[in-house]
Amino acid sequence: MMTTETRAPSVLVRAALAALAAGVVLVVVGALVSGSPAAWGAVVGTLIAVGIFAFGAFTVDAVARLLPAASLMFALLTYTFQVAAMALAFVAVSSAGLLDDELDRNWLGGAIIVGAFVWMAAQIRLATTARIPAFQTPSEGGAR
After folding, report:
1. CA dihedral defined by 114, 124, 122, 90, rounded to 10 degrees?
2. What is the per-residue DSSP string for 71-124?
3. Would you give the DSSP letter of residue 138?
4. CA 79 vs CA 9, 12, 55, 73, 74: distances in Å
5. How far apart are CA 111 and CA 14, in angstroms?
6. Residue 117 — very low, low, confident or very high, per pLDDT cuts 50/70/90?
7. Is residue 125 packed enough to be buried (19+ CB in 10 Å), middle (13-18) or exposed (0-12)?
8. Least enclosed by CB within 10 Å: which of 46, 57, 85, 117?
9. In the chain, pLDDT over 90 holds for what percent of residues?
10. What gap in Å lies between CA 89 and CA 73, rounded to an integer?
11. 9: Cβ contacts below 8 Å, ≥ 6 apart
12. Spatial distance between the Cα atoms of 62 and 115, rounded to a whole number of angstroms
């Protein structure tokens, strides 16, 4: 990388921004269509989805940089953690009595589903189009 080049944001940051943008759209649509509980449900759903996916993706990325051999095992462990964290988030929101009073259950679930799909689609698209060299070509000066 040359010193004059600017670094583009990482794939994970751009995927998180895409999911947040989709969440903002859902919040606006929810507020216009169904009112305040729908908008708050979409806000909470978006924050749950982006928070859980971001934590998992950034930790897997950190482990893959430090210990590449352990990245698959850690990715599977992180997936299990994400499923458990999503279940705990639903239990916490439900037991707090927020569903159907302050938060619309359908918009909360819809925001989580949309956030998950947008995150995955953006991450797959950005990762497959990223120009990451698999090897370095030998320099011309050292050729024999």
Report:
1. 30
2. HHHHHHHHHHHHHHHHHHHHHHHHHTT-BTTTB-HHHHHHHHHHHHHHHHHHHH
3. P
4. 24, 16, 11, 10, 9
5. 18
6. very high
7. middle
8. 117
9. 59
10. 24
11. 17
12. 22
> Is residue 27 within 8 Å of 46, Cβ to Cβ?
yes
Going by the DSSP 8-state scheme, the letter that residue 3 receives in this structure is T
Are the C-beta atoms of residues 111 and 46 closer than 8 Å to each other? yes
Dist. CA 101–CA 38, nearest whole Å: 10
Taking the C-alpha atoms of residue 30 and residue 18, their distance in angstroms, rounded to an integer, is: 18
Show the tokens assigned to 114.
């949309």
This prediction has a pTM of 0.80
